[in-house]
Design a protein that fits this description.
By secondary structure, the chain is an all-alpha fold. The chain has helices at residues 41-61, 66-76, 86-111, 117-138, 143-166, 181-198, 203-213, 218-242, 251-276, 281-309; strands spanning 5-6, 9-10, 14-15, 35-36. It has 10 helices and 4 strands. The strands form 2 sheets. It has a two-stranded antiparallel sheet with strand order 1-2.
Amino acid sequence: MQQGRTGGRRSPTFRFRAFPHRPSWRPWGTQNRRSTLDLTLAHALQAAGLGLVAGVAGGLAGIGGSLIILPGLGLFMGYDEPERTVQHLYMGSAMIVNFLVAAPAAWRHSRAGSVPGSIVKVVLPAMTLAMLAGVLLSDQVRGERLVLILAAFIGGYALLNIYRVVRPRRNAPAHPPAPRGGLLAGIGGFTGVIGGLLGIGGGIVMVPLLQVFARTPLRLAIGASSAAMCVTAVFGSTLKVWGLPAHGFSAGDALLLAGAMAPTAIVGSLVGARLTHTLPLKAVRIIISALLLAAAARMALSHFQHERRTPGAPSVEPTRAPSEQPG
């Protein structure tokens, strides 16, 4: 982040630490632009690698990909300023990639007969509406708080996942009775709110809830999650990207970053979905959970290290257009 002064005024613009500065496409132009995203080759390659890992993990576990992408973007790209407003851009980009991860995975799961239509048709409407509500809620939360909430959420999920592998529940029946519609709608609604708030697909919420409360076998829960995310990710990412100008970014920024991750994410998703039906899922869950736990710890540590470096720092004022800056 670089901030300068022009004529005694604080400049409202910033650029990524390693990104050159140049005008970028503004499809819904705004006077409150603060960022210009211009990927270098090194960062494009890092984003491609991140997309591949996210795709494989998402296809394997039905978790979309944001759970890998968001910590990865924070690690490789960094944050723009103390309040970490750039997290909103990262969320928009990750939610776009969620669809690209979920769609190929859902197709693979469907071919394997692992997408239970009776569950998806009930979960989907509630999850979609709740996802939109979660996105609107996230736009009212500062980026630094979203990062901290996400770190806590990822850490809790990883620990729970490891515990469930070490102390497994009794296996769900191969053909469980159909769960109640109200229960499924509640699972979809809760999943959507969390997904929209944190910029994740929601699979890490839906899969265990379907297993525990709806007694759905793991592979069917993963298939249902992937299928639902094909729809909810479209609506959620569209609304999040539409709201980016309020945070000083453009849709072009999100699309550029998502485009660098998209091709490898699609390939990784197809590979991961296929491996779901061949690899031992317990070992896979342990590996993914360990990686996520390390990422969550890194995010939290980065936050608290910054807090110690800037004790008593004044609160950051809302972004204002250049014409509104005090002289």
